[in-house]
Amino acid sequence: MKFITWFGLCLLVFLTACGSDNNQSGGQPVYVTVSTSNQIAGFNVDGSGQLHAMSGSPFATGPSPSAIALDPAGKFAYVANASESTIALYNVSSTGGLTEVTPRTTTGTTPTALAIDSAGHFLYVSNVGSHTIGIYAIDSSKGTPTETAGSGVFTGFGASAMKFSPSDHFLYVVNSASGVLVGYSVDSATGDLTPVPGSPFPTGISANPLAGPFALTIDANEKFVYVANLQEGSFAGFTMNSSNGTLIPIPGSPFPTGAHPTGIAEDPSGKYVYVSSLSDGKIYAYSIDTTTGVPTALTKSPFTAGAGANFVAIEPTGAFLYSGSQTNKNINGFSIDASTGDLTATPGSPYTTTASPTSITIP
Predict the structure, then answer these.
(1) Residue 335: beta bridge partners?
(2) b/e 183-203 (16+ beta carbons within 10 angstroms → b)
(3) Is the pLDDT of residue 235 over 90?
(4) 44, 54, 100, 241: most buried by Cβ count inside 10 Å?
(5) pLDDT for 65-95, tens place per residue?
(6) What is the 3-class SS of the chain, one letter each residue?
(7) Which of 247, 301, 241 is nearest to 272 (CA)?
């Protein structure tokens, strides 16, 4: 199997950019990190799923933005600047525009992923260079992040992604260099993190440390967790204990998929999982047994998404899916057939960008 180092993939992912040639205000906002030009590209989604450039986009940020997250009320946005090791705070306008509020907040070394609890009380930052998770209390009126006493949790090596469970009781972190998924219970009052029983959880074949887990998705009903294994060409599935956060491998896990998967997303209904393949530029689609969590490839899968498909995301209604094409420098949009899970290109797709898109956030 061709081996891609975690650091090498980071260079591919972080040092790229995104834009659009359309212009339309209103509709669901979408934000894309534009790493090589130190910008955030903003878009709006219309009723057909087509992307339109947001007024004022792109928005300036710090060096090598690696992730963006919005608070649940949509008032504030936070951008992790990997090369500068800072978080940039933005006020979000009624049309989705971003205005930075300075000064920036210092983080651990090389922040790569962000997560905010659904109440908007705490911001979590994974710092791949210092192998820690930073915890910041959010000022509800100004959005200012203030580091908490429990910040700086050691989380292992290569923390490439993290995600809250829908209840906010648990936070899961993917450690690419260690080949594991780390689970934490979350103290809703202080934001403190405590490892869940059994954590960390290996994601690859026979606890293969080179599986290279890189992205994760969590079932809306807190029944299942799925993790894309970059190096192994597979994705792992776990049954989740919603009481204590413990994960148990689903029978047959990990499951084969396209080469070098770097993105994974489950639709809000919990019926389908989609995995993007960096190497073959396709999206692999699976139906999910809602009792066991076992995936089955859809008959028409995989779907072409453009060379270097480096992320996949589904907007909140579950009607549309978006994937970045690192090689073609565009974003591919798809409508999701709710009855079959099949993907059909949205009008105007792919959406041309000025450079390679790296990550996407759809609040």
Answers:
(1) 320, 344
(2) bbbbeeeebbbeebeebbbbb
(3) yes
(4) 54
(5) 999 999 999 999 999 999 999 999 999 999 9
(6) CCCCCHHHHHHHHHCCCCCCCCECCCCEEEEEEECCCCEEEEEEECCCCCEEECCCCCEECCCCEEEEEECCCCCEEEEEECCCCEEEEEEECCCCCEEEEEEEEECCCCEEEEEECCCCCEEEEEECCCCEEEEEEECCCCCCEEECCCCCEECCCCEEEEEECCCCCEEEEEECCCCEEEEEEECCCCCCEEECCCCCEECCHHHCCCCCEEEEEECCCCCEEEEEECCCCEEEEEEECCCCCCEEECCCCCEECCCCEEEEEECCCCCEEEEEECCCCEEEEEEECCCCCCEEECCCCCEECCCCEEEEEECCCCCEEEEEECCCCEEEEEEECCCCCCEEECCCCCEECCCCCCCEECC
(7) 301
Instruction: For the chain, state the CA radius of gyration.
Output: 18
pLDDT exceeds cutoff 60 at 14: no
- Provide the token pair at 90: 């933005």
Q: Give the confidence band of 209 by pLDDT, cuts at 50, 70, 90.
A: low
User: Where residue 208 falls among pLDDT bands split at 50, 70, 90?
Assistant: low
- Chain position carrying tokens 């974003």: 331
Q: Taking Cα atoms as reference points, which of 206, 184, 207 lies closest to residue 132?
A: 184
Q: Which residue ranges make up each domain of the chain?
A: 6-361
> What is the number of alpha carbons within 13 Å of residue 334 lying toward its C-beta?
25
φ, ψ for residue 225 (rounded to 5)? -130, 135
CA separation for the pair 237, 227 (Å, rounded)? 7
How far apart, in whole angstroms, are the C-alpha atoms of residue 132 and residue 148? 14
- The answer to whether the beta carbons of residues 306 and 327 sit under 8 Å apart is yes
Q: Which fold has domain 6-361?
A: Methylamine Dehydrogenase; Chain H (2.130.10)
CA distances from 87 to 40, 68, 141, 192, 245 (A): 13, 9, 18, 20, 29
Angstrom distance (rounded) from CA 221 to CA 102: 38
The answer to whether 14 touches 35, Cβ cutoff 8 Å, is: yes
